[in-house]
Amino acid sequence: MSRRREILHYRHSLQEIGEIMKAMKNMALVEVRKLAKFSGVQRDLIAALEGMAKGFYGAHPELLPPDRPGDRPIYLLLGSERGFCADFNSSLVRFWEERVKAVAAKGDYELILVGGRLEGRAAGFPKISRSLAGPSVWEEVADFLPRLMATIRELVEAGSTGLIVIFHEPDPESIEERRLLPLPIAAEMLRKGAAGVPPLLQISPRHVSEDLVDTYLLAALHEALYSSLAAENRKRMEHMQNALDRLDKRVAELTSAANRLRQEEITEEIEVILLSAEALERRKKAAA
After folding, report:
1. Confidence band for 279, pLDDT divided at 50, 70 and 90
2. Which of 134, 167, 224, 268 is the most exposed place for a label (fewest CB within 10 A)?
3. Four-residue CA torsion sign, 91, 92, 95, 100
């Protein structure tokens, strides 16, 4: 195979890879748009639940869970299950490596990692309580959450108090640390010492409090997972676009190189024709 044919074959392979990368980029874009819609719904639900909590705990402050930040909290890090998302997991690892210094200084803690790719980057972490395979697309969140809730419940029953989730925000691309348990409203109500008119209930206030906490936690975890997946896919889109730009540049270089080689081949072919014509002319003269 000539050098030009080798270059053309290589260029064709790169172009096929480029088509696959474009498809991956488009899939990530579709995922981002779906997640944006569902994230908005979850934020509205969380706001409604916080309003309910203010009214309920204002009337029943005795049911507010104690805020004990010095006890053993659970930290939940949301990474990615898939690759091709640039520094998505690496930046989360760097964030935790800085944050764990202050966390460990306050006492013991539990650490849950979500995402196989994050687990692969977290080999140097001093402590990992649980590692879970996370969702890759938003449709998998509903199946994943029961496993996550069961893990959290298991650690809480073992003596852990409090839940802090650390995840990527899609816009701007930053890492957020958010406390989910005790309810964020709980500390606010304790500080204010608010009191209100007791709502009319059909079940005991304690059952309402337990259901409210579970519902809030489920909604907040939904929102955090959706935000993390959206940020992951935005990173994937950027990563794919940067790779496509480099690939297009390389294809252009190969095309230019193939054109130069073709010009050389044409020149050689012309030289051969001219030499053949001169040789034929000399034979004719010798025969005459």
Report:
1. confident
2. 268
3. negative
